[in-house]
Specification:
Rossmann fold; globular; about 550 residues; 6-stranded parallel sheet; 23 helices; alpha/beta
């Protein structure tokens, strides 16, 4: 069997259903193997820029929990795709980048002298859980298995595999290994569980903090059961949004926002479940956590890494949470309820931001919102309630501008029967709008809302605050986004009166084809629009 054919068979065994990428000299034989495996086995979606390949794979993976796969040439193709791999690494998303490479007989040459030259192992090792080169045909099953095992064990994360042309074209015999299943950990330490349960029982106001590992570890139900037994509120990290339905009476907003911060100030015990405590979630680690802190995590290296904890338990979160729930006492709402009522009243007293209520109303519980880095987008962490896990996509740690549209396309391919909305600013949408061609070619009917205020608002606001009101190059010369979308063949309408937004959004969703809703805000003052961005103000409620 040819190496390329063996690679495709190994991907099929791992339940890969689609690949995002762009063909080129060093990967055309992999593409030929993909073509010959037949239609409907592994679908291919060609992108217009490799930047989109890994981000579409990222959106697919975030929306499903399965591995998203991208395929590019080495060198410039791979480096273009590296932003998506960086986002997958920082946000713990299982994305596999596959690249071709020149023949292995040239490997002794300096990479700078090779066609599409790049030392990809050195380039990608810092931002992947696994990175390897196939040296022989017989290597392929082992490397694919090891890559998927890395991506599916502990906290998920990305991997990268490189295939020289001679290995892809070479002949060899090797067995196709079975699907790598998520490893199941053994029973948690009974003494640690008992100690943690005792400390929780002693607390009057325990609080639960939930991170992305609750979702990736399929432990959302167990989290809810513990919270309900304790009657303890739950604050989430940005990546943990959806771990508990945000219309649940115990749900707070994100940990570093107003509700989460104020609740932490009142709590006398915190149980952190699958939290990495990133700089953004903790406001550069200035956030104060109550003592005792009990940390539960699938990765023992995270225990006590950013904050000292009294008790740490590493392992499968479902198992740990079940054991802990059995041992804690039934809580009461007496200590928490009056305080939470007051906090929620303060939060709800602020004026509603435009667009977000209409988006929430337009999407069903299982609808997916992919949010880019822009003024109103920042507020979605606090003001857009997520009702199911994997229904909110955002580049939470890397925070790469332009992520939302390609990610939305990947999510829609994963869930063609669910409505998917991309919520983008003008700056972010311009970074990936060429993928409208991809959306049109394959009928990927994502609805994209483009907030057009003619500036990089958040960056301009940060410049004004940090540089004595001086700004540079944050005002934009935008195209007519409505006309641009129509030129691709997409459905498109422009909203200049916000009162008409709801009706236009409903029409866009009903169009059942790629659609763009341009919302023009150039008539709004900088001060008004910047006032919507919580982190530009001191002591923000809007987060």
């Amino acid at each position: 069997m040819k190496g390329g054919d063996l690679l495709i068979e190994c991907l099929k065994a791992q339940n890969v259903r689609c690949v995002f990428g762009m063909p080129g000299t060093q990967n055309i034989q992999i593409y030929d193997s993909l073509l010959r495996c037949g239609a409907g086995v592994i679908d291919h979606y060609p992108v217009r820029h490799e930047y989109a390949s890994t981000i579409m794979a990222d959106g697919y993976a975030r929306a499903t929990g399965e591995v998203g796969v991208a395929l590019t040439v080495p060198g410039p193709g791979a480096s273009n795709a590296s932003t998506g791999l960086l986002e997958a690494f920082t946000d713990c998303v299982p994305v596999l980048l596959i690249t071709g490479q020149s023949e292995s007989r040239f490997y002794h040459r300096h990479p700078s002298k090779m066609f599409h030259g790049l030392d990809q192992m050195s380039f990608f090792e810092p931002i992947t859980k696994y990175c390897a080169i196939a040296r022989t045909v017989e290597d392929i099953p082992r490397l694919v298995t090891e890559a998927f095992r890395a991506m599916r064990s502990g906290r998920p994360g990305p991997a990268m595999l490189e295939f020289p042309q001679d290995v892809v074209l070479g002949e060899g015999e090797a067995l196709v290994p079975p699907r790598v299943q998520r490893a199941e950990d053994g029973e948690p330490d009974a003494a640690a569980i008992a100690w943690a349960a005792q400390r929780i029982r002693e607390a009057e106001r325990p609080i639960l903090l939930a991170g992305s590992a609750v979702i990736s570890g399929d432990a959302c139900r167990e989290l809810r059961e513990l919270a309900e037994k304790l009657q303890a509120p739950v604050a989430v990290t940005r990546l943990g949004k959806g771990a508990l339905r945000e219309d649940h009476p115990l749900a707070l907003s994100n940990i570093g926002g107003f509700l989460g911060t104020e609740a932490l100030n009142l709590a006398d015990c915190a149980v952190a479940v699958g939290c990495r405590f990133t700089s953004i979630d903790t406001r550069q680690w200035s956030l104060e956590l109550p003592s005792p802190l009990i940390q539960l995590d699938p990765d023992e290296r995270e225990i006590g890494r950013e904050y000292s904890c009294e008790t740490g338990i590493a392992g499968d979160l479902k198992t740990i949470l079940r054991a802990l729930t059995e041992q804690v006492k039934t809580g009461g709402a007496v200590a928490w309820e009056p305080e939470l009522q007051g906090l929620r009243a303060s939060f709800k007293a602020q004026p509603l931001l435009p667009l977000l209520p209409e988006i929430r109303e337009a999407l069903p519980d299982d609808g997916i919102l992919s949010v880019d880095v822009h003024g109103i987008g920042y507020a979605t962490f606090a003001e857009y309630p997520v009702l199911e896990p994997r229904r909110f996509l955002y580049p939470c740690i890397g925070v790469s501008l332009g992520h939302a549209f390609p990610a939305a396309l990947g999510a829609k391919i994963a869930h063609p029967d669910r409505p998917v909305i991309c919520f983008s600013g003008d700056g972010g949408f311009m970074m990936g709008c060429c993928e409208l061609a991809t959306a049109m070619r394959y009928g990927i009917d994502v609805v994209t809302i483009v907030v057009n205020d003619g500036r990089l608002t958040a960056i301009k606001g940060a410049q004004r605050r940090a540089c004595e009101e001086r700004t540079i190059d944050t005002d934009l010369s935008n195209p007519d986004f409505t006309a641009l979308a129509r030129s691709f063949g997409a459905w498109a309408e422009c909203v200049e009166d916000l009162g008409s937004f709801k009706g236009v959004l409903e029409a866009a969703l009903a169009a059942r084809r790629p659609a763009v809703v341009e919302v023009r805000l150039q008539d709004r003052s900088e001060e008004e629009v910047m006032g919507w961005i919580g982190w530009l103000r001191d002591g923000p409620l809007r987060e």
